[in-house]
Design brief:
Elements lengths: L2 H4 L4 H16 L7 H8 L3 H12 L3 H19 L4 H7 L5 H12 L3 H14 L1
Length: 124
Amino acid sequence: MSTDRTQNCTRSQVEIAQNASSYILDRVDKHITIREIADRMHVSQTQLKNSFRNYYGASMYKFIRSRKMELAAQKLAQEELSVMEIAGMVGYENCSKFAAAFRGEFGVSPSSYRRQHRKDISEA
């Protein structure tokens, strides 16, 4: 645990943020809502969001999306699944929403990312 992170957080905020992060990482393949996490942790949504932002320096939404897109990028690079299959594996039912989120995270479409990564592998 970094002292920089905990400097402006109470012990309770640190615990809430870390527990929320663990919950998210265990369910990165599912659609997760802030309400669901707050209910599970028996805290208000506001308390959860504030604790998380104070500790991690980012919104829960951004954290969740980043983790989902990191997993998707790994799958795009390493597996022969379709983009739609990978979208479903990270909790997206709508392929265009997945593609927009992926582009927002990496600056390229999922298909372009896959082509570029495969090109990098073949050149190595």
